[in-house]
Write a structure and sequence with these properties.
Strand content: 15-25%
CATH topology of the largest domain: Rossmann fold
CATH superfamily of the largest domain: P-loop containing nucleotide triphosphate hydrolases
Number of strands: 10
Structural class: alpha/beta
CATH class of the largest domain: Alpha Beta
Strand order of the largest sheet: 6-7-8-3-9-10
Low-confidence stretches: none
CATH architecture of the largest domain: 3-Layer(aba) Sandwich
Distance between the termini: 38 Å
Radius of gyration: 18 Å
Number of helices: 9
């Protein structure tokens, strides 16, 4: 059984169908990269998985349980499925450490003293031990994005979603964030990424899915999809994206 499974997921905004019957399987410990042009439905799909957007039709299974059924508490699901966005969304009036400890305190009702050692260990792991007491405006973009990842991991999620997390970064800062993803992969974290970083997807993904017009047009291991795409739409996209 897949850790995460989507079956015929449909999401509409008015007359616009953004996710059009999407099927996707993510196995435990896999890194799955979603690629495609802007507007293909990648970000919306991630938001549906995290229940930030309700779906019109279909099913989303986490460990075999349909988490998209109406009435399910989304906070319970989001404690199991973490998400990191393009914009860091850190609270400017809180230190990096306070930002990371907020969700476990609010959602799980944990005490600051109980969670601080684990959160500090995350800062240490991702090279931010000397930045815990800094405020967001005292950090570089890459550091802020790593703090956002620490904040998501502080909830001890089973699955992590990443939405174009390097798109707002200067090119020289992209590598330090992608290194964090490689570290998480090595530790066995199950991840789904929407990304424009084709080189990273080719190097690190277990599976790559090409989306167009809200549909998964083609999917497969990165060496197959990048080197021998079968669909004309995939070939056309990669010819532009890999220039």
């Amino acid at each position: 059984m897949a850790k995460l499974a989507l079956r015929s997921v449909v999401k509409r905004f008015g007359e616009n169908t953004v996710c059009d019957g999407i099927n996707l399987d993510v196995e435990q410990g896999q890194m799955v990269c979603l690629i495609g042009a802007s507007g293909a439905g990648k970000s919306t799909l991630l938001r549906c998985i995290n229940l930030l957007e309700p779906i019109e039709d279909g099913e989303i299974f986490l460990d075999g349980e349909d988490i998209a059924v109406p009435g399910l508490d989304p906070q319970v699901v989001r404690s199991r499925i973490g998400m990191v966005f393009q914009s860091y969304n850190l609270f400017p009036h809180m230190t990096a450490l306070e930002n990371a400890m907020l969700a476990p305190r609010r959602v799980h009702g944990q005490y600051r003293a109980d969670i601080r050692p684990d959160v500090e260990a995350l800062f240490e792991k991702f090279g931010l031990a000397d930045r815990m007491e800094n405020y967001p405006d005292q950090l570089s973009g890459g550091q802020q994005q790593r703090v956002a990842i620490v904040r998501a991991l502080a909830m001890q999620p089973e699955v992590m979603l990443f939405d174009e997390i390097t798109s707002a970064l200067d090119p020289q800062l992209v590598g330090e964030v992608l290194d964090v993803l490689l570290m998480l992969k090595a530790q066995g974290m199950t991840m789904v990424l929407a990304t424009h970083e084709m080189g990273f997807a080719r190097q690190a993904a277990d599976k790559v899915c090409f989306l167009k017009d809200g549909k998964v047009i083609e999917e497969g291991p990165p060496n197959v999809l990048f080197d021998s795409p079968q669909r004309d739409e995939t070939k056309a996209f990669l010819s532009r994206a890999l220039k």
